[in-house]
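thread: overnight batch results

M.L. [08:02]
morning all. the overnight job finished for the chain we discussed friday. pasting input first so we're all looking at the same thing
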Amino acid sequence: MRAFHEFGQGNKAWLAPAILIGLVIFILLISLGLRGIITEDYFRVLMVLLIVIMVAFLFERIEKVRILNKMNEKLKKRTEKLKDANEELEAFAYSVSHDLRIPLRAIDGFSRILMEDYEDELDSEGKRLLNIIRENTHKMGQLIDDILLLSRASRQEMKFRDVDMEELVKRVFEEQKSSSQSQNVHLKLEHIPPAYGDLALLQQVFSNLISNSFKFTEPEDERIIEVGAKNGKNETTYFVKDNGVGFDMKYKDKLFGLFQRLHGADEFEGTGVGLSIVQRVIRRHGGTVWGEGEPDKGATFYFSIPTHKIRDEENGF
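M.L. [08:03]
and the structure it wrote out:
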C-alpha cells in the first residue's frame, strides 16, 4: 500500500516514459493515417514539429531531475550539519554536567561540615539557611544526574538483543519498591512478550515510567501499578498504568518536553527530564511513545517498538 502511494503520488518518474510512449504511438498513427492525404512536405514538417516537442519535453524532465538532485544534495548537507550540531550540543551538555559535579560536591561537603562541627555556634536562622543550601545542592545534583542520563540515552551505543521484558519489569519494580519508604504498592503484571532492543536502555525506560508511577500514586491508600502489552502486526505496544493523580489531557503535548512539569515542585519532586529520556530511547528503537490520563484517575504511558522480524527486514536480513 505504501509502495503504491509513493508510486502514485510521491515519485512520478513513471510519467515521462509513459507520455513518451504515447507520443510515439501518436506519431505512428498520424503517419499511417495522413499518408496519401497530405503532401510529403507537410508530412515532414509535422514530423519535425513532433520531434521538437518531444525533445523539449525530455529537456524539461531532465531539468526537473537535475533540480531535484540538487535539492536532495542540499538537504543531505543540512541534515549532516544538524546531526553534527546535535552531537556537539549533547557533548557540551555532558561535559558541563560532568564538570558541575565537582563544585557541587564541595558546596555540599563544606555545608555539611559547618552543620556538624559548628552546630553549637549557629543560631536557628543559620541552621535554616544551611539546610536550604544542602537541599538545593541535592536538587541540582539530581538535575545533573538526569541530564547525564539524557545525554547517555542519546549517545550510548545500542546493542540489540532479545530482552525478557517480563523479567525486566519485575526487577525494576523490586528495585523501586526496596528504595521506597512505603510498601503498599502492588504490581499487576500480565504476561508480556519479549522485545528486541538494547537491554540497558529499555531498563531505563521502565525505570523512569515505574518510578513516575511510584511518585504519583503516593497520595493513594492502595497504590496499584499495572504493566501489560499487546502484539501488533509490525510492533509490540507495552504500557505502564497507575491509579495515581493523573493529569489533564489538554497538557499532553508537554508530557515529553524537556524540563516540563505538569505538577508543582512542591507537590512532587522531579526535574522534568525522565519522560524526555523515555521518548529518546524509544525513538532510537524506531518506536513511538504517548500518554493518557485523567485528573485523580491515574495515568497510562504506552510505547511501541518494532518486532524482531520488522527490524531484520529493515536491516536487510
